[in-house]
Amino acid sequence: MRILHLSALPVWPMAGKGGMPSLFETLRGHVRGGHEVVLILPQYHLFNDDLIPLAVREDAGYEVHVAPCAWMPGVKGLRAVARRLGADGKLPYGLRWLLNGLTCLLLTGSLVLAALRVRYRNRRQVDLVYAHNEYAALAGWLIGALFGVANVTRLYGTFLADLMKRPLVWLRYPVAAAGYLVPHDLLICGNDGTRGDEVAERLGIDPTKFRFWQNGVDPPGDPPCVPREVFVDRSSGRLRRDSLWAVSCSRLSYWKRIDRMLRALRICRDAGGDCQLLVAGDGEQRERLASLAEEVGVGEEVVWLGAVAHRDIWALMHVADVFMITNDVTNRCNPLYEAICAGLPVVSIRDPSTADLLEHGDNALLADPDDDDQLGRHLYELEANPGLAKRLGDAQRRRAQGLWTWEERMATEVSELERLVARN
Fold first, then answer.
1. What DSSP string runs through 342-376?
2. What are the two backbone dihedrals, phi and then psi, of residue 39, each rounded to the nearest 5 degrees?
3. What is the rounded CA–CA span in Å between residue 114 and residue 73?
4. Residue 185's pLDDT is what?
5. Residue 148: how many CB atoms within 10 A of its CB?
6. What residues have CB less than 8 Å from 208, skipping those under 6 apart?
7. For residue 333, which of 358, 316, 311, 315 has the smallest C-alpha distance?
8. If you compute the radius of gyration of the chain from its CA atoms, what whole number of angstroms results?
9. How far apart are alpha carbons 419 and 422 in whole angstroms?
10. Are 217 and 337 spatial neighbours (Cβ–Cβ below 8 Å)?
11. What is the tens place of the pLDDT at every residue in 324-354?
């Protein structure tokens, strides 16, 4: 097959770090399945306030094209002005509704024009259109209709599950709903704890055209052997070799709730513990969280690593003592799978999305979402009781055997796509 991918999301790291591993693995899985991939990306990062061009790799192993988006500086400028009108820098709902819709429509036009240029310049048939994210869904359907081929929409989670009981959700959040409601021959939704299957059911999505799959995870064949001293040296002495290292890996957005970890760190320290929090990731909340760490009194106990290359995350997890994740919306995500594979005990909050992955006292220590004291006591308990930490880590390695590898996950998807194209 020749598969045309349209993505509103970044595939590769910007400035060598970050990016979307699950999107990258999807593209790689399609190539590994023996199919030809053509990828179209927008000119700029869609979801960043700055005007950052998306990274494009010329050695990707497939065609990559950029859709010019001359309109994006103007939209980002409007968004910046609108933020100043809202409280705490947040967009007022009405302006957010208008700007998100405008962005979606303009991006649709850019992707469609770019796809037409690619199709008729190369004079080669496309067998399938695959749109990543709700912002690309409409373009995927239009291009599929123009080319006379099947179209697939791929969603990477949703925030709609808790809103579905409200009236006219599709009108209140039209772009998010479009990911489900735009016509498709197959809709693939990530099982990341955001309950996308419930949203699909409430919106009346045909279950024969819906797949709800968990991401894969591929630990390195040989665990990275990077001594702690290397990380201590890289941190210019901010890291203490003999402290308990608790690692967090996420974008620094509000809903990731790093603030819970900062307060837990203070509780652990006040109990007599020696714990440092290593925060891998960057984002719009970085300055606010750094200020909060100083305010809470744990500025010296937090090491802000910034965006970290994926291979270094694996190395870090193999020298850390505990993995922390305390998100609001869902805690079921790739960093958690990777921590499980690395055998790291997990300190987290009780969350239905991870009920089948984390069991209190078995492979994790869990606290109620609003109980920072309990989170802090869990950190202290792991430092004070090495036997408990070892037992949790051993249980974690057993759990890792039940996770899907990316090769298994993508082999299943490729088989579905092949059947879809054969039927059409």
1. TT--EEEE--GGGTTT--BTTTEEEE-TT-HHHHH
2. -115, 135
3. 19
4. 98
5. 9
6. none
7. 358
8. 22
9. 5
10. yes
11. 999 998 899 889 999 999 999 999 999 998 9
Whole-number Cα distances in Å, 36 to 62, 142, 216, 378: 7, 21, 22, 49
Q: Beta-carbon neighbour count of residue 178 at 10 Å?
A: 20
Residue type, 176: A
Please give the structure tokens belonging to residue 6.
Answer: 């349209």
For each of the domains in the chain, give its residue range(s) and CATH number, in order of start. Answer: 2-216+404-423 (3.40.50.2000), 228-400 (3.40.50.2000)
Enumerate residues 6+ apart whose C-beta is below 8 A from 372. Answer: 260, 263, 264, 267
pLDDT of residue 16: 46
The reported pLDDT for the residue numbered 19 is: 62
Quick one: pLDDT at residue 276?
A: 96
Q: How many CB atoms lie within 10 A of CB 368?
A: 11
Q: Which residues of the chain register pLDDT less than 70?
A: 13-19, 87-89, 220-224
Contacts of residue 141, Cβ cutoff 8 Å, sequence gap at least 6:
131, 151, 153, 182, 183, 184
| 389, two tokens | 């930490």
Question: What does the pLDDT look like over 81-121, one tens digit per residue?
Answer: 887 877 666 778 888 899 999 999 999 999 999 999 999 88
Chain centroid to Cα 239, Å, comes to 27
- For the four alpha carbons of 240, 241, 243 and 249, in that order, the dihedral sign comes to positive
Is residue 392 a contact partner of residue 364, using CB atoms and an 8 Å limit?
yes
Q: Are strands 2-7 and 36-42 parallel, antiparallel or unpaired?
A: parallel
* Total number of residues shown for the chain: 424
